[in-house]
Specification:
alpha/beta, D-Maltodextrin-Binding Protein, domain 2, six-stranded mixed β-sheet, five-stranded mixed β-sheet
């Protein structure tokens, strides 16, 4: 009887030990998983709030599967995310088109390059005090962005609508000084791009970058006019992922570009923005 009791106790001890061992392995496994997630390599990307940051977040899960944690830093201007990229604070940024970047590099001595064309945002003219381009009054105030490339887009769009005339063969560097005919003497008010939507209530109409229009809950379908798909701007102003020169072939950058240039992201852009943002890959 005693022998049977001893055997039973020993059996229960062994089973208990095995169960404890399984539990320990499970806990260890969970700790290992947690450790893996903590050890993900960070990809820190600066982005405009809309649509850039939203597009990036659509690929965060895919990047995590590849061993990367995507950290999106939002900006409401075009300058700081470039200086942060140049200084090494960011791994990449997604805020701008190539003409703006080239102009920025030239003016600031930075060394930033494009690694991928992602999308195009049609530029629009939106109603302020006036709800019609045809009925704009004499001396009406028209707000435009004050940076070189976006001001050119705005002026070219105004010309396409017959509101002003620019010098012959006007290109993508035109400014208000290149206006040769302004029949209604419009006041062209130059503002920092992010401030243009905020000025709508104080001007008659405004030419606004799509990302800032979206942030202000303005839809491209609400615009009084917008750039056509065959316009010079449409062929030139694709928004890009940019990095500091020398980092183009970094593994994390290749992973980022591959994730963003996917069918999943293309569908996300087409479904969410309904033509206000157009994928170019």
């Amino acid at each position: 009887m005693k022998r049977k009791l001893i055997a039973l106790v020993l059996s229960l001890s062994i089973v208990g030990g095995l169960l404890a061992g399984c539990g320990s392995d499970g806990a260890a496994g969970k700790k290992a998983d947690a450790g893996f997630k903590k050890n993900l390599e960070v990809i820190k990307v600066g982005a405009s709030i809309t649509p850039h940051a939203e597009i990036l977040r659509a690929v965060s899960d895919e990047l995590e599967k590849q061993g990367y944690k995507l950290e999106v830093v939002e900006y409401n201007d075009y300058i700081i995310p470039n200086t942060a990229l140049e200084s090494g604070e960011l791994d990449a940024n997604y805020i701008q088109h190539l003409p703006y970047l080239e102009d920025f590099n030239e003016e600031n001595g930075t060394h930033i390059v494009s690694v991928a064309d992602i999308h195009y945002e049609p530029f629009g003219i939106y109603a302020g005090k006036s709800d019609s381009l045809e009925n704009l009054k004499e001396g009406a105030v028209v707000a435009v962005p004050n940076d070189t490339t976006n001001e050119a887009r705005a002026l070219l769009l105004l010309q396409d609508q017959g509101l002003i005339k620019l010098k012959e063969n006007a290109g993508l560097t035109v400014t208000v000084k290149d206006i040769v005919d302004n029949p209604k003497n419009f006041e062209i008010r130059e503002l920092e791009a992010a401030q243009v939507p905020k000025a709508l209530q104080d001007v008659d109409v405004a030419a606004i970058n799509t990302n800032y229009a979206l942030e202000a809950d303005l839809k491209l379908s609400d615009a009084l006019a917008s750039e056509g798909a065959d316009s010079l701007a449409a062929k030139t102003y694709a928004n890009i992922i940019a990095v500091k020169e020398g980092n183009e072939k970094a593994a994390k950058i290749k992973a980022l570009v591959s994730a963003v240039k996917s069918d999943k992201v293309k569908k996300f852009i087409e479904d969410k923005y309904e033509g206000a943002v157009v994928p170019v890959f």
